[in-house]
Amino acid sequence: MEVKTKLLVSLYVVIALLALLTTWIHLPAYLGNGIVEANIQFWKDALFNANPAGKFLVIDILFLAFTCNVWMIVEGRRLGVKYIYAYVVGGVLIAISVAFPLFMAARELKRASYESPLELYKIKAIDVLALFCLFLVAVFAAIAIL
Predict the structure, then answer these.
(1) CA of residue 81 relative to chain centroid, distance
(2) Is the Cα dihedral 131, 55, 99, 102 positive or negative?
(3) Which of 79, 96, 135, 138 registers the highest number of CB atoms within 10 A of its CB?
(4) Is the dihedral angle over the CA atoms 58, 146, 50, 141 positive or is it negative?
């Protein structure tokens, strides 16, 4: 593996760790009532109890997350990255700022393993369904806070 690939993979992992630490430091306030209630209260605060700037950022990140998920699934299928949905689910349950750099690290490692041109890939029906559901979340959240 080339040095630039190692450096890039390391950078992506460091970004994911920093994102995990700096996002999850804010979650203890929500965890006292269990995971379901914590999620409900978190999204109420993020979508409905936030000021206009906060709402803007939430919607912006939801659409960015959707775009990242489209790209992760398409690129993951194209390269044959394993466990694509671990990154998608991780983006939903942990943070897209953690899951996306981890996917990018896995992508770089996969790309480094190829010696010949990549073959054609196939998007599966489950991919389209998952992306449609994530798109609906972003759209409904955007409409709900108007």
Answers:
(1) 15
(2) positive
(3) 96
(4) negative
Cα–Cα distance measured from residue 136 to residue 55, given in angstroms and rounded to the nearest whole number: 17
d(CA 136, CA 101) in angstroms, rounded, equals 24
- pLDDT at residue 124 greater than cutoff 70: yes
Q: What are the two backbone dihedrals, phi and then psi, of residue 124, each rounded to the nearest 5 degrees?
A: -95, 160
Closest CA to 69 of 144, 138, 134: 134
pTM of the model: 0.81
- CA 76 from chain centre, in angstroms, equals 13
**Type of residue at 139:** V
Q: What is the pLDDT of residues 44-100, one digit of tens each?
A: 999 899 999 999 999 999 999 999 999 999 999 999 999 999 999 999 999 999 999
Cβ neighbours of 111 (radius 10 Å): 14
pLDDT at position 120: 58
Rounded to whole angstroms, the Cα distance separating 126 from 40 reads 27
The token pair at 16 is: 């994911």
**HSE-CB of 31 using CA atoms within 13 angstroms:** 5
Tokens of 107: 């992508």
